[in-house]
Amino acid sequence: MSDEIIMSENNNLNNTNISVKKIPDKDILLFKSCLVSVEYPGIESSTTFVFDKIGVDYFVSDKQTCCTGLGHYSDVFDQFTTTVIGARNFSLAKDMNRHNIVMLCATCYAINKKVANILNNKDDIREKVNCVFEESNLNHLKFEKGDLDSSANIFHVVDILYNKKDEISKNIKYDLSKFKIATHHGCHYCKVHYDDTIGGVRNPM
């Protein structure tokens, strides 16, 4: 199935703008989260189970490292270190021809999108990052502007599941429609990168 176009509403600052967001179902690197893998492994296993059922093409790599998210927000890792690590992970995805990176964790989502924006928009930082790789004889990890786009190539798993909701409905075994269920939308998903939130930040899908 080809990528589907989903409408995304940006209602930040009382403005309502509808933008188009393409959601992939192939060439995906499923990004491992330290928090999800250690604290909530059922999220990881159930996600891959569902992906297999609905035909999502993904890969999980042992070479990928933590995004530093919790450490970054706790001031253990500064932004530059986090950016170097992000650039390394992006290069791994590129080498594996996995051009779309899907996050299980909202913090990974926000961190990696920010890193991609820094690498694409701040030439001086990108040059410093690449100097680290060059000095470490890791030239193959260098990031070139445009290698990965924060909106076109970085997604949260909820984006993929929303896009594949029709396929998911065909695999339902237990009907939960009689239950009223409240969901918690991660703030790092819907309130950091407003333009990419499906349905808008005030009423995400």
Provide a compact summary of the structure.
This protein has helices spanning 34-39, 41-54, 69-73, 79-95, 106-121, 123-135, 150-153, 157-163, 165-169, 187-190, and strands at 4-10, 17-23, 28-31, 58-59, 100-103, 154-156. With 205 residues, it is α/β, with parallel strands linked by helices. A hairpin with a 6-residue loop joins β1 and β2.
Blueprint of the fold:
Elements: E1 4-10, E2 17-23, E3 28-31, H1 34-39, H2 41-54, E4 58-59, H3 69-73, H4 79-95, E5 100-103, H5 106-121, H6 123-135, H7 150-153, E6 154-156, H8 157-163, H9 165-169, H10 187-190
Parallel strand pairs: 3-4, 3-5, 5-6
Antiparallel strand pairs: 1-2
Helix pairs in contact: 4-5, 4-6
Structure overview:
This protein has ten helices and six strands; from the N terminus they run βββααβααβαααβααα. With 205 residues, the chain is of the alpha/beta class. The chain has helices at residues 34-39, 41-54, 69-73, 79-95, 106-121, 123-135, 150-153, 157-163, 165-169, 187-190, and strands at residues 4-10, 17-23, 28-31, 58-59, 100-103, 154-156. The two termini are 21 Å apart. Residues 9-19 have low confidence and may be disordered. The strands form two sheets. It has a four-stranded parallel beta sheet. A two-stranded antiparallel sheet has the order 1-2. The longest helix has 17 residues, at 79-95.
